C-alpha cells in the first residue's frame, strides 16, 4: 500500500526534530510577547525614578536574541535534511512520470517543508501574540478583549469566502507549471511565450484575489485599532506606560491577525499540492521503504 505524502507524513517521520524547532519557536514568541508589557512597565518605572524594570527588559531582550539566533542555526539543518529525504522519496515514486511533471512535483514537495519551516512558525507567532494580547487587553478593559474576539471572527469569516477560489486558482497555476519543461523542450518561441503569458495570468489572478481579501481584512483592523485607542484613553487612571502597552498590543494583535489569512492561504495551496502529489496519474509502484527519518 502506497503511503500518502502530505504534512502529516512529514511530521510523523521527523516528529522529534520538528518538535524541538517548534518548542524553540514557542519560547521565542513567549519572550517576544512580553516585550511591549515590559516596555510599558519600564516607562512607568523610569518616570518614577526606578531602573529595576529597565534591567528586566534588557534581560528579556538579550535572552530573546540568543534564542532567535540559535533557532535559525538549528532550523536550517533540520529542514534541509527533510527536503533532501522527501525529494529522494519522490524521485523513486514518480519515476514513471515525464520529466516536466517530475521536476515540478519535486519543487512542490519543497513547499510542504517550507510551510513547516516558515508558515507554521509564523502561525505560532500569530497564535501566541493573539492570545497574549487578548489576555493583556482584557485585563486592562473587558471591552478591549471583546473587540479582539470580534475582529478575529470577522476576519476568519471573510477568508472562508475565498478558500475555494484560492484552491482553484492554485490548481490552474500548478497545471501550467507542470507543462514547463515540455514547452521548453519543444523549443518554439511562440509556445514558450504563450506558456509564460499563461503563468503570468494565473499569478496575477491569485495576486488580485489576495489584494481584495487583505483589503477587506485591513478595514476591520483599522476599526479595531481606532476603537481600542479611544477606549484605552477613557480608562480611569490609565498611566502613560499602560496606554503605550494598550496601543502596542493592539497593533501587535493586528499584525498577528494578518498572519492568519496568509497561513490559511498557504494551506489552501498545499491542499491542492498534496492532492496532486498523491493523484492517480503518478501511480508508480509503492516504495519498499518509507521516508527515512535519519540523515
Automatic annotation (TrEMBL):
Residues 9-241 form the ABC transmembrane type-1 domain. It is a multi-pass membrane protein. The chain crosses the membrane at residues 20-43, 55-74, 144-162, 211-230. It is found in: Cell membrane. SUPFAM superfamilies: ABC transporter transmembrane region. Keywords: Membrane, Transmembrane, Transmembrane helix. It holds the Pfam family ABC_membrane_3. It comes from the Bacteria. InterPro entries: ABC1_TM_dom, ABC1_TM_sf. This is ABC transporter six-transmembrane domain-containing protein. It comes from Roseibium sediminicola.
